[in-house]
Amino acid sequence: MNLNATLLAQMVVFLILAWFVMKFVWPPMVHALDERAKKIADGLAAAEKGKTELEAAHKRVDQELAQARNDGQQRIADAEKRALSVAEEIKANAQAEAARIIAQAKAEADNQVVKARETLRAEVATLAVKGAEQILKREVDQAAHAQLLNQLKAEL
């Protein structure tokens, strides 16, 4: 066999093989590789999008937590203010009630003092009359001397 003919035959077979591979094998492989590259790119894009969404979700969660803390602190502050106002109201009511009770007690004491004075005046008048009876050794007519006793009560 001739070396040139063998070389030429191998070249023809190689060209036929190259043409066959380029016509029938290469396009499906390129298509499969392109699809795979597209899937990988889509996967990376989805991963990046998921990462971005996760970061956004973390930010929203942090904002919601901060808002919840602020709301809780505001509610606590409002409750403390209400508690203070209720305590002040109760204190004011208690002071008003105490003042009313003291005023009532003073009025009652004044009434008792007036009654005691009247009773004491009556007793002093009776004792004065009895003393005058014993001094005079006779009975004094109370009806006749009622005006005298009233004057004596007024003076005492």
From TrEMBL:
Membrane topology term: Single-pass membrane protein
Membrane-traversing stretches: 6-26
Cellular localization per UniProt: Cell membrane; Endomembrane system
Coiled-coil portions: 44-97
Keyword check for Ion transport: yes
GO cellular component: endomembrane system; plasma membrane; proton-transporting ATP synthase complex
CDD domains: ATP-synt_Fo_b
Gene3D superfamilies reported in the protein's UniProt record: 6.10.250.1580
GO molecular function: proton-transporting ATP synthase activity, rotational mechanism; proton-transporting ATPase activity, rotational mechanism
Keywords: ATP synthesis, Cell membrane, CF(0), Coiled coil, Hydrogen ion transport, Ion transport, Membrane, Transmembrane, Transmembrane helix, Transport
NCBIfam families referenced in this protein's UniProt entry, alphabetically: ATP_synt_b, PRK05759.1-2
Assembly behavior: F-type ATPases have 2 components, F(1) - the catalytic core - and F(0) - the membrane proton channel. F(1) has five subunits: alpha(3), beta(3), gamma(1), delta(1), epsilon(1). F(0) has four main subunits: a(1), b(2) and c(10-14). The alpha and beta chains form an alternating ring which encloses part of the gamma chain. F(1) is attached to F(0) by a central stalk formed by the gamma and epsilon chains, while a peripheral stalk is formed by the delta and b chains. F-type ATPases have 2 components, F(1) - the catalytic core - and F(0) - the membrane proton channel. F(1) has five subunits: alpha(3), beta(3), gamma(1), delta(1), epsilon(1). F(0) has three main subunits: a(1), b(2) and c(10-14). The alpha and beta chains form an alternating ring which encloses part of the gamma chain. F(1) is attached to F(0) by a central stalk formed by the gamma and epsilon chains, while a peripheral stalk is formed by the delta and b chains.
Family assignment from sequence similarity: Belongs to the ATPase B chain family.
Annotated function: F(1)F(0) ATP synthase produces ATP from ADP in the presence of a proton or sodium gradient. F-type ATPases consist of two structural domains, F(1) containing the extramembraneous catalytic core and F(0) containing the membrane proton channel, linked together by a central stalk and a peripheral stalk. During catalysis, ATP synthesis in the catalytic domain of F(1) is coupled via a rotary mechanism of the central stalk subunits to proton translocation.
Record-given protein name: ATP synthase subunit b
Protein source organism: Trinickia dinghuensis
